[in-house]
């Protein structure tokens, strides 16, 4: 069975999650949560890792973890296997505690770290377990807002985004998270590439170029297409402009033109840019306008043979630039 690609290097940051087998609970009482955190602490000391956020839910967990020594697999094998052995012994059960191996996504700190931190700390609220993040005991949220000390967590990086005054930073962080209760948050995992990488276009391109092609295209790896070398934003814009014989300025500013929608479609298809980022590029159009335009163009491709030929020709030209 194909598996997502695992990427490890010194200084990498990840979102890691693991779920209970068959959706069953992995923590049954308070001592289970404490014991899991104990193994996290041991792993931190043994393998020199940093936890930037965590939330332990009844049936699964989420971690934001940094690995200065590029050893995520060692860390997670230690934590999961140690806890599974403890849990099965304590509760007199046999079989797998977790549903397969843990899942990990390489994360760019500068572009998605804060968003993921926010999303994780609101997980218990979205799951209707509590009404406020303050009400959930088993997360790192309390370390960020100053409710209690948690030596397991490194808060400096995220809180530093809210200013140098620690007290004010904690207050602003609380406001930032609780503001998410008043509206629907965009799921940051929608922008994951190949179930393995989450970050800006530059980060994704740089990461893919640094990978071994033999490994990324192995039959054992899932989502090989998404992990193939990707054209840059500027390459796509240049090729579309040349094909339609229009200036870059016209491409980005003229509304209701086929070439504009072609460019948006290709950026959505071949890059890691979000709808919001694409909208800013095209003279500040809205997130929803990008989404609707992409959907209309996709529908048109199903019936318009001529448009399909143009798309293939432009795609080939972009590929030749790789």
Q: What characteristics describe this protein?
A:
single chain; 322 residues; alpha+beta; Alpha-Beta Plaits; Chromosomal Replication Initiator Protein Dnaa, Chain: A; 5-stranded mixed β-sheet; 15 helices
CATH architecture of the largest domain: 2-Layer Sandwich
Gyration radius, in Å:
22 Å
Question: How widely separated are the two ends?
Answer: 30 Å
Question: What is the helical fraction, as a range of percent?
Answer: 40-55%
Parts with pLDDT < 50 across at least 5 consecutive residues: none
Mean pLDDT over the full residue set: 88
Q: Which structural class is indicated by helix and strand composition?
A: alpha+beta
What coarse outline follows from CA principal-axis ratios?
elongated
The helix tally amounts to 15
Number of domains: 2
What would CATH call the class of the largest domain? Alpha Beta
In order across it, which strands form the biggest sheet?
2-3-1-4-5
Largest sheet: 5 strands, mixed
CATH superfamily membership of the largest domain, which one?
Transposase IS200-like
Give the helices and strands as they follow along the chain.
Answer: EHEEHEHHHHHEHHHHHHHH
Q: How many β strands by DSSP?
A: 5
The CATH topology of the largest domain comes to Alpha-Beta Plaits
Explain how this protein is built:
With 322 residues, the protein is an alpha+beta fold. The chain has two domains: 12-198, Transposase IS200-like (Alpha-Beta Plaits, 2-Layer Sandwich); 231-320, Chromosomal Replication Initiator Protein Dnaa, Chain: A. It contains 15 helices and five strands. The model has no long low-confidence stretch (mean pLDDT 88).
């Amino acid at each position: 069975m194909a598996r997502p690609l695992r990427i490890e290097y010194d200084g990498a940051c990840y979102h890691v999650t693991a779920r209970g087998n068959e959706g069953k609970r992995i923590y049954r009482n308070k001592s289970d949560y404490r014991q899991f955190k104990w193994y996290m602490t041991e792993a931190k000391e043994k393998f020199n890792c940093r936890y930037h956020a965590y939330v332990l839910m009844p049936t699964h967990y989420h971690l934001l973890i940094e690995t200065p020594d590029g050893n995520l697999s060692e860390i997670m094998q230690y934590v999961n296997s140690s806890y599974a052995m403890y849990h099965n012994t304590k509760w007199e059960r046999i079989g797998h505690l977790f549903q397969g191996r843990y899942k990990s996504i390489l994360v760019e700190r500068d572009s998605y770290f804060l968003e993921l931190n926010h999303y994780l700390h609101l997980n218990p609220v979205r799951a209707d377990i509590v009404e406020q993040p303050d009400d959930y005991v088993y997360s790192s949220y309390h370390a960020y807002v100053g409710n209690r000390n948690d030596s397991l967590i490194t808060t400096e990086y995220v809180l530093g985004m809210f200013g140098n005054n620690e007290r004010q930073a904690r207050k602003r962080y609380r406001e930032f998270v609780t503001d998410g209760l008043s509206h629907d948050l965009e799921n940051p995992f929608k922008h994951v590439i190949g179930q393995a990488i989450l970050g800006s276009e530059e980060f994704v391109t740089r990461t893919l170029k640094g990978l071994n092609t033999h490994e990324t295209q192995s039959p054992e790896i899932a989502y090989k297409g998404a992990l193939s070398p990707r054209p840059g934003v500027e390459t796509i814009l240049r090729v579309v402009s040349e094909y339609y014989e229009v200036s870059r300025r016209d491409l980005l500013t003229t509304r209701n033109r086929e070439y504009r929608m072609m460019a948006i479609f290709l950026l959505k298809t071949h890059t890691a840019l979000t709808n919001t980022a694409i909208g800013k590029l095209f003279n500040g159009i809205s997130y929803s306008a990008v989404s609707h335009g992409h959907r209309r163009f996709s529908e048109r491709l199903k019936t318009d043979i001529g448009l399909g030929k143009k798309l293939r020709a432009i795609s080939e030209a972009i590929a030749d630039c790789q």
